[in-house]
Amino acid sequence: MSILYDERPFHTRVKDVMDNQFKVKAIQKAQDVFYTKRKALVEQVPAWEEFRTEAAALRDHTLRNLDYYLNMFAENAEKAGAHVFFANSDKEATDYALEVLRQKEAKMIVKSKSLLTEEISLNEELIKAGINVNETDLAEFILQTDDWNPPSHIVVPALHLERSKIREVFHDKLGYEGTENPEEMTRFVRKFIRKRFLTANVGFTGCNFGVAETGSITIVSNEGNGRMSSSIPRTQIAVMGMERLVPDLASLDVMMELLVRSSVGAKISNYFSLITGPAKPGEADGPEDLHIIIVNNGRTNVLGGEFNSMLRCIHCGACMNICPVYRHITGHAYGSIYPGPMGAVLTPLLVGYEKAGALPYASTLCGECWEHCPVKIPIHELLLKHRENIAEHTNVRPAIEKPIFKTAATMFANSFLYDMGTKAAAVGMKAVAKDDAMPEWMKVLPVAGGWIKSKDMGTMKLHKFRDVYAKYEKNKKKGTF
Amino acid sequence: MDEAKKRDFIGRISRALGREAIPDYVAPFDMSHGPQADMYDDLTQDQVVAMFKTECEKVGTHYIETTKDQLGQVLLDEIEKRGGGKVIYPNSDEVREYNLEELFAKEPADKATFIKWDASKGRDANINASQDAEIGITFPVMGIAETATVVQPSTEESGRSIGLLPITHIAVLHTDTIVPRMTQSMAALSEVYKEDPSSFPTNIVHISGPSNTADIELVRVVGVHGPINVTFILVD
């Protein structure tokens, strides 16, 4: 998969999602579950805000000195026996991986979950080269088996598929004869993939944090596929975004405090692996060769610029677990492997406004994403910055906007016109309303339809806030409040 | 490493940061004032161990308390409770210290058979033995109370596969190695590294319960790729 897996217009993608209520409900349930669990845990950490502040400062410190720490990381990783490759682009990264596979005469690989490998289209390139690719994370395995169905969430990517559909896919593609019980299906997959773990030539993994002090990579996982991919095959290839560094082991303590709580509302993942070089001579398992591919792929365009703070991101998914827009349009409406608020900032940075200029508008700018971000990325401000850039420097903005804003400016500048306009609308809406809600037929109207189509709108109130406030001010003066 | 490629790659980063070259020195990030620095400072070791146990209970990780004298028997009982079968164990000092091999030898073969990890037999033999085993026994070096985690390094004597491939993992942890948080465990690992980087374990896995997933409709299922059952035996 590349960064954008669905390049149809934003509204087409949204409409597609809206037509699939199972998908929408599944995402809403995930939000509710993760939110409740996260909230309960965060409340148990009195110093949560201090941790966020410290983590944000730590990430900024690392980014400000990224050249220094990357150099240190590479030197220490090499000292530990790893091969480090610096890839400026996605193609350089996949070419290097293919070259390693060629040298190892590898025919089959196993892979644990990594968004970055999606970003660089690793699977496509491997398949093109005739390599047997096996996703091993349960959700990724389901998506692969379903002909590479795209992910809808970065933590639980196959949430949009109901169990009956998964059963059907397993039955049709893998000859599964069991029930749609999640435990039974999971056991089936365990057995199916175990064989591949034991015979694969190479294990691909991502890297949550590289540790400059020791040259270590780390893998956070619950299922154990990260452990398998880094323990059983003779060669391990880890792919790491260049910004995913921490200075030292002590930093991991702070990052882990925040990452898993923010991500799924658990104190820690079941497994957290710290891998420093390949297996030593004499060890009877673990990779004999460890390759670490460090990827830029557009990140230097972000580093040090107005969107620099986006590179603090540790891919926890907390922003999408709270976002009211994501709740309604789900991951698939973004069309990007990086969905939700973080994706709406990051995707345009990586692929440009021409292709992803609609995403910064998929937000109410309520700021909940920032409040829940463990590294305090001001996501809503960055989204606004995108909109400013789009308005000022590109032609992506819809042409109709100009006259609308001109009229709006005149209206808002003149309080009498504004008052009359909205009150007229209120009277008008009241006239057509049924049970105080707008009737279905209104949705086909050009302007009002757009306003009420995706919302359950009440009628605009005759007693507007401004009126109520004026009354309040008047009464305050009279001393009746 | 391709040095020219590295110079080019890092050079781009330096330039994005507004400088020509990598700085010679960067003052380390000061973590001494972070909230983690003095958390649980006032706890006694007994309280730290109690926290570990409470956390095990909260997340449903099975643990058994015992003493050094009783460890052998407790281990055999737990093996039986977990259904016996083939058991793989490390070639480590603890096994000798507790005379476990003597005990294992006395156990009737219909209850359990024991295989020792033996790196000299090579990769395939050890991985296959672990894959065949129903139970793997390991001796983690540290425990972390706040998350009920054990810290398990891989060595020549105790490979990655032992606590990974069998359906049941039994980890024997000494309670005096339990620390409150990852703050202390990472500090300890950092000490080990600084003392001699070449002796640093190549793989250290933090294990906090059995393998699990919620990937299908958010239904929690225990046991995906790693062990389905985990027991921590806490030795006082």
Labels describing this entry:
heterodimer, A: 481 residues, alpha/beta, Rossmann fold, 6-stranded parallel beta sheet, 4-stranded mixed beta sheet, 52% helix, globular, B: 236 residues, 32% helix
- In spatial order, strands of the major sheet of chain B run 1-12-7-4-2-3
- Sheet with most strands: strand arrangement of chain A: 1-10-7-4-2-3
Domains of chain B (count): 1
Q: Supply the helix-strand structural class of chain B.
A: alpha/beta
Kindly, what is the distance between the CA atoms of the first and last residues of chain B, rounded to a whole number of angstroms?
Answer: 48 Å
Shape of chain A: globular
Tell me the span between the first and last alpha carbons of chain A.
61 Å
Encode the helix/strand succession of chain B as letters: HHEHEHHEHEEEEEHEEEE
Q: What's the tally of helices of chain B?
A: 7
Count of extended strands of chain A:
10
What does this protein structure show overall?
By secondary structure, chain A is an alpha/beta fold. Chain A contains 22 helices and ten strands. In chain A, strand 5 and strand 6 (216-221) form a beta hairpin. Chain B has a single domain, classed as Rossmann fold (3-Layer(aba) Sandwich). Chain B contains seven helices and twelve strands. The mean pLDDT of chain B is 96. The chains are: A alpha/beta (481), B alpha/beta (236). Chains A and B meet through helix 2, helix 3, helix 4, strand 1 and helix 8 of A and helix 1, helix 6, helix 7, strand 9 and strand 10 of B.
